[in-house]
Amino acid sequence: MKRTTGRLALALALVAAPLAAQQPPQPPPPPGAMGMGPRMGAMMGGGMLMGMGYAPQRLVDRREVLGLTPDQVSRLETLAQQAKQARDKADSAAKGHRDALADLWKQDAPDVNQIRTHAQAAMQAMEGAHLAQLTAAAQAKAVLTPEQRGRVAGWNDADRMRMRQMMDRPGRGGMGRMRMQGPMRMRRGPGAT
User: Fold this and answer.
1) Angle at the Cα of 165 (from 154 to 37), degrees rounded to 5?
2) Out of 3-12, 58-67, 98-107, 127-136, which region has the weakest mean confidence (pLDDT)?
3) Buried/exposed code over 49-86 (b: 16+ C-beta within 10 A; e: otherwise)
4) Cα 64 from chain centroid?
5) Concatenated DSSP letters for 157-178?
6) Burial class for 167, CB neighbours closer than 10 Å (0-12, 13-18, 19+)
7) Residue 133: Cβ within 10 Å count
8) Is 45's pLDDT higher than 50?
9) To 10 degrees, the CA torsion angle through 15, 18, 22, 28?
């Protein structure tokens, strides 16, 4: 009986594997991955993530590994301070609008125009902060030598690969695609051949 069950399971696996291989590939997730809107998802998938690898503070934090000169450190620290000031200013501006939105949502019938006004103002403030960070990262990249840029590019590639692997893992709350990783293997019970 066990031998017949094992053979039946093997036969089913042999039939199922080619059928699974014929399934059309899953489309990539939409640009709005990770709960972001389409515009933000597109930015994060493209230049935004690339630019963050060159964030001035990140480079300053890795000064020894990169072999930064004192002049490079000084220039990068200035850029990091400017980016932080822009971010703090945007956070402050956006906070007032987020608080107003929270108050509006407490109402039984929130005013749609007020929601739109505060939401757009908060998003514009944050968009300005992202633009300032991306600009600072581009300026920071220009401070580096070609060898240093190559090292940072390698780190960025590794970061993207880790992110892609994390996103492709099954069971990531709908963020990843379900895929078979290698051949399907059957477990054999005790005494099965």
Assistant:
1) 95
2) 3-12
3) ebbbbbbbbbbbeeeeebebeeebeebbeebbebbeeb
4) 27
5) HHHHHHHHHHHHSTTSTTSSPP
6) middle
7) 21
8) no
9) 110
Record the tokens describing residue 133, joined without a space.
């960070």
User: Phi and psi for 111 in degrees, rounded to 5?
Assistant: -75, 115
Q: What is the pLDDT of residue 190?
A: 58
Within its chain, how far is the Cα of 63 from the centroid?
Answer: 25
Q: Which residue has the higher pLDDT, 186 or 102?
A: 102
Per-residue confidence at 53, pLDDT binned at 50, 70, 90? confident
Dig out the tokens for 94 from the structure: 């956006």
Q: Do 56 and 140 meet the contact criterion of CB atoms below 8 Å apart?
A: yes
Q: Tokens 């939401």 map to which residue?
A: 119
DSSP 35: G
* 25 three-state secondary structure: coil
Q: What integer is the mean pLDDT of 178-188? A: 48
Mean pLDDT computed over 33-40? 40
